[in-house]
Amino acid sequence: MTTQRTARAFQLAARPHGFPTADLFTVEESPVPEPAPGTAVVENVYLSVDPYHRELMDEGGWELGVPLEGRAIGRVTASRAPGLTEGDLVFHRAGWRTHAVVTPGEGGVRTVPSYDGVPLAAHLSILGGTGLTAYVALTRTLEFRAGQDLFVSAAAGGVGTAVARIARLLGAGRLIGSAGTPEKVARLTGELGFDAAFDYHDGPVGELLAKAAPDGIDAYVDNVGGDHLEGAISVLRDHGRIAWVGAISQYHSAHEPPAAPRNLFDIVGKSLRLEGVLVRDYGYAQAELEALLVPHLQSGLIAPDVTVVDGFDRTVDGFFGMLRGENTGKMLIKIAD
């Protein structure tokens, strides 16, 4: 049984205008729930805060006054669900709270496999939705091949670092990344295997990318949109491909129409392909991802890239830090041992 008697959950009290503020969130307390037939109660260990959560804060996303949604891993403390027993670790989407009621098979609920030498945090980063997004962007959307040259925007973030790790395993040619600080740029080339990287504050992205990739690129994983997408279109070779994962550049301006790249029609002139990536469409590829990565995690060839904030009360701080780019790799909140 759980050692806590009170469950806590973050709720959204109002919609943001621009960058969100702490007063938009409230914490509601209630007794730890009891499982109904077919369900189990989990006490969360790790919570994931993600860029798409900023979009969910706007109209049409999260409901006001109800517990928020997010990926999480929790330990079963009480179960009336076949296949789940006390002590099992479970992946689910009822994050932003200390306790959740889950139903096996619903909402992506699944037990977390135990691999010797693989830390639990990996299952919310490179083995979780973040890594799966990177994997399907490369293998499905881009149909990435060994020797091809790749540009990754927001390359020091969760998806960006996972793309780099997986692209190297797939035999990438030149790997180019953008980031928001000189320290992150140095880490991209010094630790994460990028051949070139630049700070997008140092000038027009198209010019910086052209300098970093003078012979062009074959493919682009876009986590930013805006000027990064415009720059990538200008540097992509004919028949290049774009996997559009996110649009960080416009997350805080939902009430303003985003500016389209000025060279959008070059997609036609260069016979480029642009396709959006939604990880929820690719759950079937999870086993492939684990088969590829687990041996390399166990050997130490690759490691989960994570920034961990300790404490449930600091969940919003971690969320804001992620939105400001203070993390390297995936931002996680650790709320229990």
Description:
This protein has helices at residues 51-56, 129-141, 158-169, 182-190, 205-212, 226-235, 266-269, 286-299, 315-323, and strands at residues 6-12, 25-31, 40-48, 72-79, 89-92, 99-102, 110-111, 150-152, 175-179, 196-199, 217-222, 236-244, 273-276, 306-310, 330-334. The chain has 337 residues and is α/β, with parallel strands linked by helices. Helix 2 (129-141) crosses helix 3 (158-169) and helix 5 crosses helix 6. The two termini are 15 Å apart. The mean pLDDT is 94.
Briefly say what this structure is.
With 337 residues, the chain is α/β, with parallel strands linked by helices. It is built from 9 helices and 15 strands. Helix content is 25%, strand content 24%.
How would you classify the helix and strand content by structural class? alpha/beta
What's the story with the biggest beta sheet? 7 strands, mixed
Strand proportion: 15-25%
- Overall, the morphology is globular
Q: Report the end-to-end length measured between terminal Cα atoms.
A: 15 Å
What Rg is obtained from the alpha carbons, in whole angstroms?
Answer: 20 Å
Provide mean pLDDT, rounded.
94
Instruction: Please count the helical segments.
Output: 9
Proportion in helices = 25-40%
- Low-pLDDT stretches: none
Counting DSSP E segments of at least 2 residues, the number of strands comes to 15
What are the secondary-structure elements, in order, as H or E?
EEEHEEEEHEHEHEHEHEHEHEHE
